[in-house]
Write a structure and sequence with these properties.
Strand order of the largest sheet: 2-7-5-6-3-4
Number of domains: 2
Distance between the termini: 64 Å
Radius of gyration: 23 Å
Order of helices and strands: EEEEEEEHHEHEEEHEEEEEHEEEHHEH
CATH superfamily of the largest domain: DNA methylase specificity domains
CATH topology of the largest domain: Adenine-n6-DNA-methyltransferase TaqI, Chain A, domain 2
Largest sheet: 6 strands, mixed
Number of strands: 20
CATH architecture of the largest domain: Alpha-Beta Complex
Shape: elongated
Length: about 350
Amino acid sequence: MKVRSKPRLKLLGDVVRFGNGKSIKPGTEGRYAVYGSNGIIGGSDEFRHENGVIIGRVGAYCGAVVYCPDRFWASDNTLVAYPLTDQIDTRFLYYLLLEAKLGQHAGGAAQPLVTQTVLKQVEVSVPDLATQRKIAGILSAYDDLIENNLRRIKILEEMAQSLYRAWFVDFRFPGHESARFTESDVGRIPKGWDVKAMTEAVTVRPKVSIPKGGDIHFVTMGGLSENSMLITEVESRDAPTGARFQNGDTLFARITPCLENGKTGYVEFLPSDESAACGSTEFIVLRSKTVCPQYVYLMARSDAFRDNAIKSMSGATGRQRVRDECFDQFFLAQPPEELLA
């Protein structure tokens, strides 16, 4: 009977060879993908890497991990990891680094930062090469299923956005042909609809009480998608901190570049509507008062809403944040209850 050896704990420095990314002219196009700290940010006619793992080195996506089996360019806010020996499978290395949660090893005063020196000291469990390949094969198959589902989710998200624009922006709701319209401060709106400042229809940063002690759900900026309502990563903390929210709330990124990139989420992962969770201090929590939770989320994804928020941003270059006062300057036409339902 063959006895399998147990995976051994090793330092990443004994498993991984790190390299630094390099800056590239913005707006470049080309056949090779250019990776930033959270995925593809453009293209290039040149490449510097092939079949490697890209790690976010600095900023909001510090510690994020992406795998590219092809040729690519990595920007200067990344590190690139390769197997140090032929006894490490590159796809397995990706899952190994993903599981290691590298962001928790970040330092830096002004913004999060991971360095090669620190990462090399992280302990990881490494099985033999055959087991690595089996693990990578199984996880890759699951990733393919997830990717297919995410494509379906994206289509549904686009359908929901189209419905929001048609009904509540362009006023092409069911029965609009026979509706009467009137002039208002925001242009022509259906008669009977009221013009409201967003803060009359939505509560900004609602007060939420969370008891101390026990495991508390916590959402990082990395848990928000740039094009989907889904919150994909939820951690556990032992004390309440940061933004606080409940099911039905919308999480809106207030800091650059997360806002410009579309980071927004809809909270529906909590076990009950009475449950509460915490998240990044860079979230603005939005809660429906006179509309409905889904309307708030779709509004937060709309170009007009985001443009209004972006114009209000202030602060040091690269760390600008939305000012809450901007929401008083965003107006909407309050739909009737029946149409919201």
